[in-house]
Design a protein that fits this description.
single chain; 224 residues; mainly alpha
Length: 224
Amino acid sequence: NSQNPNDQQNQQNQQNNQNSQNPNDQQNQQNNQNSQNPNNQQNQQNNQNSQNPNNQQNQQQNPNSQQQNQNRQQQQNPELQKLAEQQRELSNQLNDLNQRIREMTQALDANKLLTEEEKKRYEEEVNQPLEEIAEDRLPDAANALNDLNNSPNPQADAQRAQQNMEEIAKEIENVAKNLSQSKNYNELLLRLKGIIELQEKAVGESEKELKKSEKTKPLKTEEL
């Protein structure tokens, strides 16, 4: 009986401690919720506001870019692209052939079958022109054919591209004539003539394709 009051007092103190602590804990919890949750909600809202418009904008832009890509594909003429690839392939073949001619010249020179004058002539009249055609003229012709698809002046550029291809064929023919002066190059000369035939064929195909493109070209607004 003498201890019970103390026990009751202890219980009362514990209850008082709970009562004194719990409101603060509840208040702290409430404050934490009030302080955190609005920010989290605000952050989520900000993220949605900051991200979604960009995504929507990107989605709006994608159809435009897809349409532009589709228009480019429609504008590309597959026949002109094919002819451009042929010009690049002829460039590779001509480079290889020119190297073989140089090797043949070196072999003839080593065997004392060429004079210095002949050696110099083949370099100036055969090797150098072939190198220029292979390294510059044919790649330029290929690029010109590709550029016709997006040219602002397709008719004038087409005529220029056609003329360049014809000039290349004539230049290779002149080299073939210079090379034919010696029987030592007969096999290589046959290969060179084969390249000439391929270039002349490409000239004819390009002329036909450019004429067809001109006929099917839609009229401009001022022409209607």
